[in-house]
Specification:
heterodimer, A: 429 residues, TIM Barrel, 8-stranded mixed sheet, 8-stranded parallel sheet, 14 helices, globular, B: 332 residues, alpha/beta, 2 domains, 4-stranded parallel sheet, 38% helix
């Protein structure tokens, strides 16, 4: 008996672009249920229940965000799974890794399952939870790592919480390596970072703000690279900030260590100098570093070495309405993620192909999942983008609960006009 | 509500002072105008009737989130001598300790129709934040924010230097001690640079000199012998006891041996060099009593100059605010 597809979509006349699949041409895409069934010529007998006109637009694989704080459970004033994944869908994101630092912390299988269920119910974006590496993110005892992996956690991380000592890090890596669990880590020597709330340099000296020195990142990183070599853990360095850290990671890769890295979108836009007016929107974790660091990070994306994540951290207004150091760290990114990225292409900072790789095939490789590609039989995750449309968001336009978005009121070139996730249209401008 | 701060918060559109938050970014002409205005108030301080009516009918709120005796009382005296009504609020012991946020405290005070806030706060940038978020037409005077700025102290120091040594072009100035934590040093450096001083030195151990100090246009020294050579003005900074615990310094005795201003070390400076200190001084920790009380010390003159300087910036900022109010009145 033949099963008739219930959901068929034709995306007509779009410029299909997927550097990994070597696609860069105008062609139609045919979707049946949750899969792409053909590119170019329709399969025999294909009847579209819905046709999307993509003429003059670009079609990309759905984007993957490796790091976003969603606020649920426990921080309903900052965000919810529904509001924040809605914002993600507006930026063409079809898979998103949620951080474990909710309240309660994602250190149990129940919570990992709950988050995925809630995301499914909301129906905007697939959420792949990152579980806690230590119980309660306390940095002392191992979490139930295997149970977390079994419940769908794509990786484990201690988020931005410190470890009690370096032996705990070593034991976490050692244990996780035995079960082929991937660890996400944002290396930081917290003693060296001290009370630093911005990059230590001329601007912090001028502003009288406590500086977070580059060596706080690199000395933490050096330790973890050594522990990686010793334990064989698959390590992903999340949100690196400095040129020196980047060089160390590339060197480790050349030595054959299983390490990868990403950079937060904000670090491709801003530097420590942007803190100069005590703008609390520039108070982020990890910090924005120097112009040299920013250039090196852009270059690393262009060279195809690192992925780009949102480092989305929505906050209520009161959390940001305080003097710089007293304000909560973090920015709300997801609503502007895609437009801000396309704007980097528009202004000549990134090439289109390196950008698309950095938010699709590269993070898919980090997660070791068959996502982020436009190919027959692959999951129908994609977005349609008008590269010539200006996107100028104001706070009333945001889907995210967090209005701490540094791109508000900025005209960014390029806008997602349709996002398809698992064959469903989840967003249309 | 926008979270973006404009670069120049403290000036009116035509470049007059409406808040006084930092000495950084102000023109030489404006700093000179502040000095001249303060100079003119010095003569009023010597009369039997010391008050002038420049702030009559205005309400000034002393908003001190950090303890202070000297700065607060000189601001209070300055406001009274300008005929303002003054309210002293010791926030360190009241509202915020009950959990009220800074914004809520401010909104409450605004509701009492204040005209000027004199603010001291432990967070760098707090005065900028307040100036940005209070109702327009309330002048904000920074009485010290974290490690960032203490502009009235720096300007009363400039006034003292100008009265003792004349103009700034040919002066060599050394600032000695805990530069890292000092808002006074930062404000002095910006003021000195703008006023034309081109040899500014900071002297201290590496652990008390912030990174990239040279970006502020100064030279850093680790020893007094080199640093004090040929200096016309020596500014000593207070050393706080808690620095010993934070792995910044070994001991008071080693600090005094290396950086304490003794008669011998002062002899390395130019003859006639003046010795300054923003107070309160630690005798035997950063300065020898014989120097603090000696003929080259102008420490008590600094205190006297504090009142006319604070009168000057309060009067000028209120003038800038009044002008804006009138313009708004005309356009409305």
């Amino acid at each position: 008996m033949k099963v008739y597809p219930q959901n068929t979509i034709m995306i007509q006349g779009g410029h299909v672009f997927d550097p990994q699949q070597k696609l860069d041409a105008v062609m139609d895409i045919f979707i049946e249920n949750d899969s792409i069934v053909a590119l170019g010529t329709p399969p025999q007998g294909f009847v579209a229940s819905e046709t999307i006109d993509a003429q003059g637009k670009m079609v990309f694989p759905g984007f993957i965000d490796l790091h976003a704080f969603l606020g649920e459970p426990g921080f309903s004033q900052k965000g919810s799974i529904s509001t924040e994944t809605h914002a993600a869908a507006r930026s063409g994101i079809t898979s998103l890794c949620s951080t474990p630092n909710s309240n309660p912390v994602v250190d149990s299988a129940t919570l990992a399952a709950l988050i995925q269920d809630k995301a499914k119910q909301a129906g905007f974006c697939r959420v792949l939870p990152i579980g806690a590496l230590t119980a309660g993110l306390q940095g002392e005892q191992l979490s139930n790592m295997y149970a977390l992996k079994d419940a769908g956690c794509v990786a484990l991380s201690n988020s931005d919480a410190p470890f009690k000592d370096s032996r705990v890090i070593q034991q976490c890596f050692h244990y996780a390596a035995g079960f082929d669990i991937k660890v996400f880590s944002t290396p930081l020597d917290t003693a060296l970072a001290h009370e630093g709330c911005m990059h230590e340099g001329p601007t912090s000296t001028q502003l009288g703000l406590a500086g977070n020195p580059e060596c706080a990142e690199t000395s933490g990183l050096a330790q973890q690279i050594i522990l990686c070599e010793e334990t064989g853990i698959k390590l992903h360095f999340s949100r690196i900030t400095s040129k020196r850290a980047l060089d160390m990671i590339l060197e480790a890769q050349q030595k054959g260590l299983p390490v990868s890295a990403d950079v937060a979108l904000g670090n491709l836009y801003f530097t420590d100098e942007d803190c100069a007016s005590y703008n609390s929107l520039m108070h982020v974790h990890p910090v924005y570093r120097s112009q040299t660091d920013r250039q090196a990070l852009l270059q690393a994306v262009n060279d195809g070495h690192i992925s780009i994540c949102s480092n989305h951290y929505p906050h209520e207004l009161a959390a940001k309405m305080a003097p710089f150091a007293a304000s909560a760290a973090g920015i709300s990114v997801l609503d502007s993620f895609a437009s801000a990225l396309f704007n980097l292409v528009h202004t000549g900072k990134l090439t289109l192909s390196s950008l698309i790789s950095a938010v699709s095939s590269l993070p898919a490789k980090v997660l070791d999942q068959p996502l982020g590609q436009l190919a027959p039989e692959s999951r129908a995750d994609l977005c349609i983008v008008d590269m010539t449309r200006r996107c100028n968001l104001n706070s009333q336009d945001l889907a995210s609960k967090g209005h701490n978005n540094p791109w508000l009121g900025e005209a960014l070139m390029g806008q997602v006009i349709c996002t398809i996730n698992d064959g469903h249209i989840v967003y249309r401008a | 509500m926008s979270l973006i701060l404009p670069q120049q918060v403290q000036l009116t559109e035509d470049g007059r002072l409406k808040h006084f938050l930092t000495t950084q970014g102000l023109s030489r002409a404006l700093l000179t105008e502040i000095l001249d205005t303060a100079d003119s108030f010095i003569s009023t301080q010597e009369r039997s009737v010391k008050t002038v009516p420049l702030l009559r009918g205005k309400t000034v709120v002393n908003l001190f989130f950090e303890n202070s005796t000297r700065t607060r009382s000189t601001f209070e005296l300055a406001a009274k001598r300008l005929s303002a009504n003054i309210l002293n609020l010791d926030i360190a012991r009241s509202a915020t300790s009950k959990g009220e946020t800074l914004m809520d405290t401010l909104w409450n005070l605004e509701s009492m129709y204040s005209d000027m806030f004199v603010v001291r706060h432990a967070d760098s940038g707090a005065a900028h934040f307040i100036a940005q978020h209070v109702t327009p037409n309330v002048a904000v005077i920074n009485a010290g924010d974290g490690r960032h700025a203490h502009p009235t102290q720096a300007m009363l120091d400039m006034l003292t230097i100008r009265r003792e040594k004349g103009e700034f072009e040919n002066l060599t100035v050394a600032i000695v001690g805990d530069i890292l934590h000092s808002r006074v040093a930062r404000s002095q450096i910006h003021a000195l640079t703008t006023l034309g001083c081109n040899d500014i030195r900071v002297i201290g151990p590496n652990t008390l000199i912030p990174k990239d100090m040279e970006s502020l246009g100064v030279r850093a020294y680790n020893n007094m012998t080199q640093g004090l050579k040929g200096v016309d003005v020596v500014i000593m900074l207070r050393l706080q006891k808690e620095r010993m615990q934070a792995a910044l310094l070994p001991s008071e005795s080693e600090y005094y041996r290396l950086f304490g201003l003794s008669t011998d070390k002062l002899a390395l400076a130019n003859p006639g060099a003046i010795v300054m200190h923003p107070g309160p001084i630690n005798r035997g920790v950063e300065i020898e009593s014989a120097v603090a009380d000696g003929p080259q010390s102008v420490i008590l003159k600094q205190v006297s100059n504090g009142i006319p300087m604070r009168m000057a910036v309060m009067a000028m900022a209120m003038g800038g605010q009044n002008q804006e109010r009138q313009q708004i009145g005309v356009s409305a």
